[in-house]
């Protein structure tokens, strides 16, 4: 993958990824995640540094070291907390369990990073902007959603695509797992096959009484997988 990982370009200034390519990367990542979930596999570590790019910026979702098979019949299985700070769904910090919902959360964080060109957590920022999700949700509530778009793009983006991308990112990164979409629902919005979500104007507080997802992980050895995203 000659262009390295996505984070080198978004956060380390290796190159400026134009808007059309960013949107294609998101759609490709969503398709890869849909394939995994339909095959009963949880990735558990979706993040910008695990998205690899070739010379023409076609992407692959890599690093399946934490991936696990989903077992729908055995019920909840405990496991150690896995993932990367900033991409781990809130419920995982409490339960240590991963699910399709937590993969969708991580996907949502990456989507927001691609749209805004900044990391999910920026400790050097003030309290109101340190959390990417909280910052974007505040802008959405103030009807200033497009103001969070990556300044490096110099407003050279499709407005409808940017709006839908940010809304899907917030939807997927909802604090309560029961309020997140499936990856298929997210894809339908990204492809303009469904209306964007109607989110609350203020970032919701996590509901600790969420109904657990039926998709849980078993403690099994990860397989060796490589998902090529569509061009």
From TrEMBL:
Gene Ontology MF annotations? ATP binding; carbohydrate binding; protein kinase activity
- List localization entries: Cell membrane
User: One GO biological process from the UniProt record?
Assistant: defense response to oomycetes
Q: Which GO terms describe its cellular component?
A: plasma membrane
The transmembrane segments are: none
Q: Which Gene3D superfamilies match?
A: Transferase(Phosphotransferase) domain 1 (1.10.510.10)
Name the InterPro entries for this protein. Answer: Kinase-like_dom_sf, L-type_Lectin-RKs, Prot_kinase_dom, Ser/Thr_kinase_AS
Tell me which residues make up the Protein kinase domain: 1-177
In what way does this protein cross or attach to the membrane?
Single-pass type I membrane protein
Q: Does the keyword Repeat apply?
A: no
What does the similarity note say?
In the N-terminal section; belongs to the leguminous lectin family. In the C-terminal section; belongs to the protein kinase superfamily. Ser/Thr protein kinase family.
Name by which UniProt lists this protein:
Protein kinase domain-containing protein
């Amino acid at each position: 993958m000659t262009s390295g990982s996505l984070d080198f370009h978004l956060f380390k200034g290796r190159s400026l990824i134009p808007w059309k390519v960013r949107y294609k990367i998101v759609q490709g990542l969503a398709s890869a995640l849909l394939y995994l979930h339909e095959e009963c596999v949880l990735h558990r570590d979706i993040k910008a540094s695990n998205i690899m790019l070739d010379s023409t910026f076609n992407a692959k979702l890599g690093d399946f070291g934490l991936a696990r098979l989903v077992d729908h019949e055995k019920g909840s299985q405990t496991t150690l907390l896995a993932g990367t700070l900033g991409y781990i769904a809130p419920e995982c910090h409490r339960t240590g369990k991963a699910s399709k919902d937590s993969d969708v959360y991580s996907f949502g964080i990456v989507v927001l990073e691609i749209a805004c060109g900044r990391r999910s957590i920026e400790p050097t920022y003030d309290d109101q902007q340190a959390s990417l999700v909280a910052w974007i949700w505040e802008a959405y509530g103030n009807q200033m959603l497009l103001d969070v778009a990556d300044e490096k793009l110099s407003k050279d983006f499709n407005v409808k695509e940017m709006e839908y991308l940010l809304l899907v990112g917030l939807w997927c990164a909802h604090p309560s797992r029961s309020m997140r979409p499936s990856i298929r629902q997210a894809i339908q919005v990204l492809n303009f096959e469904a209306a964007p979500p109607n989110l609350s104007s203020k970032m919701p507080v996590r509901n600790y009484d969420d109904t657990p997802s039926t998709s849980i992980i078993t403690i099994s050895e990860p397989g060796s997988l490589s998902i090529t995203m569509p061009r």
